[in-house]
Amino acid sequence: MIALLSPSKSMDMEPAKVSGFSQPQFIDRSKKLVGQVKKFTTEELMEFMAISEKLAILNRNRFREWKPPFSTDNAKQALFAFTGDVYEGLHSNSLGKSDIVFAQDHLRILSGLYGLLRPLDLIQPYRLEMGRPLEMRGAKNLYEFWKPVLTEELNRNEGDLIVNLASNEYSKAIDRRTLDKSMVSPVFKDEKNGTFKIISFFAKKARGAMARFIIQERITDAAGLLDFAEDGYRYSPELSTADQPVFTRPER
Question: For residues 102 and 107, what is the distance between their CA atoms, to the nearest angstrom?
Fold first, then answer.
C-alpha cells in the first residue's frame, strides 16, 4: 500500500533531526524543469505563478541556486521540509525511527518539481505547483510531463492499494486509466450549522493525521483505514462508498 500526499508551499529548511536520507528518483527530469523556469524574468515568474514580486524574487533565486548533488548540507529530507496544514496534522518531527522506516516504504509526496518523493528524499527549496501551465518538450503542462512516469512508478510498487490523501490538483497527476491498483480517496467533513461539509483547513490537517495513523498503526489495507479516529473524526458508513470513505466530526 502507498499513501499519497500533496506538498506544501511553506517549507522549513533548518537541518532535520534525522540523519538518514535518500535521493529523489527523478532528479534528471527535475533538472529539465529547473532549466526551463530559470529562464523566467521576475515579471514572468509573477505572472506564471500568480505570486507577488517578493515571492517571485525569492523563487527565482531558489531556481538559480538549485543544484544537485544533494546532501544534508544543502538540502533536507522531504517529510521534514514541508510545513503546511497537512504536515501540521502529520507531526513528522515526533515520529519514531521505526515509523520513518515504514513511511519510507509506504508514503509518497507528489511534487511539481520532483515528481514523486519518498519521505527521506533530499530536496532543495522550491515552488512549482503541479497545476501551473509549464510546457516541456512536447508536454503541454506538468500533468502531461509527469503523469506517465508517476503512474508507472506507482504500478511498480508492491501492494494493490493507493490511499489518495492528496488534493485534486496533485492527484490528477496519476493516470487512473493505466493505474493497475485500487485507489481509495478518504474524505473528511466537519459539521457546520447541522450539515457536514468539507472545510479546507480542517480537511488538510485530517489528511496529515490519517497519514500519521497509517504510519504508526502500520496500516496496509483499506479496511484498516476505517479505524481512523483522530481529532474527533469517525468513519461514517452511511455517507461512504467503497472508494471514498467519509469521516465526519461533530461541530465543536
Answer: 8
Residue 218 in grid coordinates: 502500520
Domain that holds residue 236: 2-249
Tens digits of residue pLDDT in 132-166: 999 987 899 999 999 999 999 999 998 999 999 99
Spatial distance between the Cα atoms of 233 and 235, rounded to a whole number of angstroms:
7
Q: Give the pTM.
A: 0.97
Look at the chain and report how many structural domains it folds into: 1
Q: Residue 94 pLDDT > 90, yes or no?
A: yes
Contact yes or no for 82/10 (Cβ under 8 A): yes
The average confidence (pLDDT) of the chain is 97
